[in-house]
Design brief:
six-stranded mixed beta sheet; 10 strands; two-stranded antiparallel sheet; 14 helices; 351 residues; alpha/beta
């Protein structure tokens, strides 16, 4: 796979807002989190924290989050010194619009042989066709063992990627990204990458403004660029070596201008070759890829929050022409600028 894969490589466009006939009762999107024995409490809490925040203009929750087990309601073991009381049995899966599987350290035959337990098989069979599926970290083993990932891209914690690929050769494993959006199936890398994935799902469902508000309230970045390469242990660098932080800040203030790699390198008094290597080590992608990501994010924000023409948005985001921006948004999001604005500006402009 090409080394510069984006952190969020979607292969399907964001879905349109759900249609509700006039007078139909409001219903939040129902997310069911499947809690398995040995789960990590931190990862279990991510969906509740992220999806528990978004509200519509009337203050109504956009999501309803519930937790279920493969057994009748009762305690579920964690990897800590406490259990959690889960209020729902597997029947809750039949009511889900989205099912999320966090990581567990007690997956047994799922992790050891790639085989579902009878209880998991019965529980997953309750999920309705068309339900969106997502996993956090090694929760991906459950999706893969159930056959949901055959012939599709997926990711997991970088330290587990090789093992996962050997066990499930039909899955296209990418260990360089924080998460992968493959339309109706999404997977994330380890632990905190679950936050990135859930914020992305909010952004995909309701736009950047809603996701950014959730990120602000959660005190996390609304979008982390780069991949897992940033977090793989490496020898400690020479403390006298410069980072690329100043160059990135300089570039963000000038996204609307034509930016050259040599100009960014000059901000750190480095050669282009040294700067490119250092940038990739620190950020996980090349400077060119990073600039494109930043410009796509700027364009999304302007399309959602302003009435600027598509030509002006293209200039302000640094793409130069509407055609160039259209090509980049089509690649990154699967939609044209006009379609993106039509989907999200009316839904989020009042939030």
């Amino acid at each position: 796979m090409p080394p510069d894969r984006t952190t969020t490589p979607p292969s399907a466009p964001p879905p349109p807002p759900p249609y509700r006939p006039p007078g139909a009762p409001f219903r939040p999107h129902r997310i069911v989190v499947l809690a398995l024995d040995g789960l990590l409490p931190f990862e279990l809490g991510i969906p509740h924290r992220i999806f528990g925040r978004p509200r519509d203009p009337l203050g109504r929750p956009l999501y309803e989050v519930v937790t279920c087990s493969v057994r009748p309601p009762g305690p579920v073991r964690t990897d800590a010194d406490f259990a959690i009381q889960v209020p729902h049995g597997p029947q809750a899966l039949a009511t889900a619009d989205t099912v999320i599987v966090p990581a567990s350290y007690e997956l047994g035959p799922v992790y050891e042989r790639g085989e579902l337990t009878p209880a998991l098989t019965a529980a997953l069979a309750l999920i309705r066709p068309g339900t969106r599926l997502a996993s956090i970290c090694t929760g991906v083993y459950v999706l893969a063992a159930a056959g949901y990932l055959d012939g599709r891209p997926a990711t997991t914690h970088w330290s587990d990627a090789d093992r996962f690929q050997r066990m499930f050769p039909a899955v296209g494993v990418d260990a360089d990204v924080l998460f992968i959006d493959d339309g109706d199936v999404l997977t994330s890398a380890g632990v905190a990458a679950g936050i990135d994935l859930c914020l992305h799902m909010v952004r995909r469902d309701h736009g950047t403004a809603v996701a950014n508000e959730v990120a602000r309230r959660t005190v996390v970045p609304p979008h982390r660029h780069g991949g897992q390469a940033q977090y793989i242990e490496r020898p400690v660098p020479d403390p006298q070596q410069s980072s690329t932080t100043a160059a990135r800040a300089w570039a963000l203030d000038r996204l609307h201008e034509p930016l050259q790699l040599r100009d960014m390198a000059a901000q750190e008094a480095m050669s282009v070759r040294t700067f490119t290597r250092r940038f990739r080590e620190e950020v996980g992608v090349s400077p060119g890829r990073w600039l494109t990501q930043q410009r796509v994010e700027r364009a999304r924000h302007l399309l959602e929050s302003t009435g600027l023409s598509v030509d002006q948005v293209a200039r302000d985001a640094g793409f130069g022409t509407a055609q160039s921006m259209r090509q980049h948004l089509q690649t990154a999001l699967g939609v044209t600028p006009t379609a993106y604005r039509r989907t999200f500006r009316t839904e989020t402009g009042a939030l």
